[in-house]
Amino acid sequence: MNERVIAVVTAGLTTPSSSRLLADQLSAAVADELSGRGITSRTETIEVRDHAHDLTNNLLTGFPSAELREVLETVESADALIVVSPTFSASYSGLFKMFFDVLDDQALAGKPVLLGATGGTERHSLVLDFALRPLFAYLKALPVPTGVYAASTDWGPNAAGLRPRITQAASELVAALHHETPTKADPFTNPTPFADLLNS
Amino acid sequence: MQFGVFSVGDVTEDPTTGVTLSEGERIKAMVAIALKAEEVGLDVFAQGEHHNPPFVPSSPTTQLGFIAAQTSKIILSTSTTLITTNDPVKIAEDYAMLQHLADGRVDLMMGRGNTGPVYPWFGQDIRNGIALAVENYALLRRLWREDVVDWEGKFRTPLQGFTATPRPLDDVPPFVWHGSIRSPEIAEQAAYYGDGFFHNNIFWPITHTKQMIELYRRRFEHYGHGAADQAIVGLGGQVFMRKNSQDAVREFRPYFDNAPVYGHGPSLEDFTRETPLTVGSPQEVIERTLSFREHFGDYQRQLFLIDHAGLPLKTVLEQLDILGEEVVPVLRKEFAALKPAHVPDAPTHASLKVAAERARALETIEEPAVVAEPTAEEPTR
Predict the structure, then answer these.
(1) Domain residue ranges in chain B
(2) Phi/psi class of residue B240: alpha, beta or left (left: φ > 0; alpha: ψ in -120 to 50)?
(3) CB contact under 8 A, B191 and A194
(4) Which residues of B touch A193 (CB under 8 A)?
(5) Which ranges carry the NADPH-dependent FMN reductase-like domain (chain A) (predicted)?
(6) Which residues of A touch B265 (CB under 8 A)?
(7) How many CA atoms lie within 13 A of B322 on its CB side?
(8) Domain B2-346 adopts which CATH fold?
(9) What is the CATH number of the domain that holds A79?
(10) Alpha helices in A82-127 (DSSP H)
(11) Using alpha carbons only, what angle is made at residue A66 by residues A62 and A67, rounded to the nearest 5 degrees?
(12) Less CB within 10 Å around the terminal CB: N or C of chain A?
């Protein structure tokens, strides 16, 4: 089978960030799961922080810089997506949202997505289902049922508790990979004939 | 090839002096720019239409009529005429009237307008933007071409036995361009009618502009108006020039940094690299403009944006001097030398009048041997 490309979008701000830590563990688990099924894969990890200025500029000018355009195309053409946002003020971070605001709203249609979030306290864990999941539902992506939330304690005493959730989510993402992504019509290759526009 | 300027008509504070023109001063400044454009030998002055501050030109034919009275050569155009929120009946009449007053020195560029709140002020909804552009323009064409129109559509009250007055000058409707940045439907519309297509070519990378123009050219050929390279293409462009490149950059930077639309965003250097904006010497503007031809093919009209973001009138008039003396004469020569003979110039009232007379003469001689093409549309030119 062809190589699968997994794009990882992580919006942590510090170096290293716990969001990146979770993103790396999720992508490693997905790669393991794929190789266990005899499928080779490649991971493209995108630190949203690296594109913060370009994202702002895109919002202001309406078009991405050449560099950001490449990043957006990576996400759009990937077979599946892993996203991780830190929890800010009870939701995903503004920077994380900007990335998906700038992405074409059809770019993720039909694409399997593994939802991840991090936070200082486990009390925010429903951010996955109350903030991230609706966003990806709107984008017509296919978020897998298990999301992974990691609080500070998951990196210490509770680390063993995080592992099975990561494995479960990774196997769900790989299972969803068999889903055929719908092909998009290109209005520049196949424009709507004018007679149809006149009569619609 | 035609060269000109297009003005958005924004009232913006000059970030270097804190001076903001009054609406009246800005309106008069636009007139001064148009008169100067004719004086320095440009071919076209086009102005925007807006119904919200910080823009002043809500009534283009009033302004263009005033300019027409003080000029004799320059073509007066729009950038753009809102085909969505204006009543097509009023567009038909306003611009036919202007045609008579300006002795035919008039064409129009149709645009949809991208400001959501404006639509409901005129009883419309931005979500119908494309549908409005399609229906209103189809009606506008009939109003200019048929003396008595019966019509019914979705967006305006029906017309029975209606005659738009005055009739177009010499029964030749103004040439129409369709402007759109990213809607393939509008490129398709321009191609269908064999009208011109204009890309403002200002805010977007060249790849986007190219995609739109290639679609228009391909479909122009598809609809039988000529070969793809004979389609009528217009381009915008944004320039700021001084004798020395560094002086241009230094002087323009504060205007760029605070400009409406892209200000407080990318750096001048990034934006210059990513978009057609050129800030530098006249020679750099010449080279960049000539490079458009390599991307988009031979084209018929080049308009420059030179008067926004709070630039003082004095500076804008200096820009026009540089365009007229150093840039456009060179571009005219270079573009003309490169253009193959089968690529037409942009239609003007004079050329359309000749074409219409020829078509009428042909009809009289060959009737009824000439069989109409099985298309819903009459030829445009």
Answers:
(1) 2-346
(2) beta
(3) yes
(4) 188
(5) 6-155
(6) 56-57, 60-61
(7) 22
(8) TIM Barrel (3.20.20)
(9) 3.40.50.360
(10) 94-102, 127
(11) 110
(12) N
